[in-house]
Amino acid sequence: MAKSSKSGPPVIVKKEENGHEGGHHGGSWKVAYADFVTAMMALFLLLWLLAALKPTQKEQISLVFQDKPTQDAEMRQRTQMPIYMSKDFKQGTPEFKTAQKQKMLYEIALKVKELIAERPDVLENSGVSSDQSGVLMQVNNAIMFEPGSAVLKPSAARMLNGVVEILLTQEVSLVVRGHADDAEAASAQYPTKWELSSARAVAALRYIVEKGGIPAKRVRATGYGDSRPLVPEMTAESQAKNRRVEFFYHSPETEVW
What we know:
The protein is built from eight helices and five strands; from the N terminus they run αααααββαβαβαβ.
């Protein structure tokens, strides 16, 4: 303590050491480093999981990232068919046949998805669903036929060529189902909607058989008229949705219509 040379209160000078808690850079680097280590651990865990997946499992996961937003949940759910093929299954047993059938239907569902996803106009006017009995592809008449007509449009060829390819590469049978809407007018050629829808199914089936040389015992055509609408026919848009052709793939031993 020192006294001022002038009169008055004394001046006190106090010195304090500044603390350096956490070192020169504080403790923030520890938080950043911990985040980095966590991210790296998650990355290597993901890589390990991907390496451990089977090819079929990877295909199922890839479906989640391939659909357009308008198709997303519904189509992914319908086309993801689990495949269980145990090493203990012996060829010829019921379990083996069931597993083989599931595998075949799953492969067909993937091929159908690829077929309708190749062109935006087909994707917007088509749909695919699957269950234990088979795989169903619905194609709207926007690319198949004109309203009131059973004459194939040029845009139908690419879709039908894809159907032929599936039949040539898979041991599967096919049912083609024609549908009309309740507003399609009768004509001299098609007095009823039953005849119109049947003619549409036959026209598509004729192309498939002639194009691919498919044996007649593997295919079938049927018409439902306007008896099975997808949606209530309240507007022109809903009526257009009900004008469609369905392609149902199923195993040969399954009897369906």
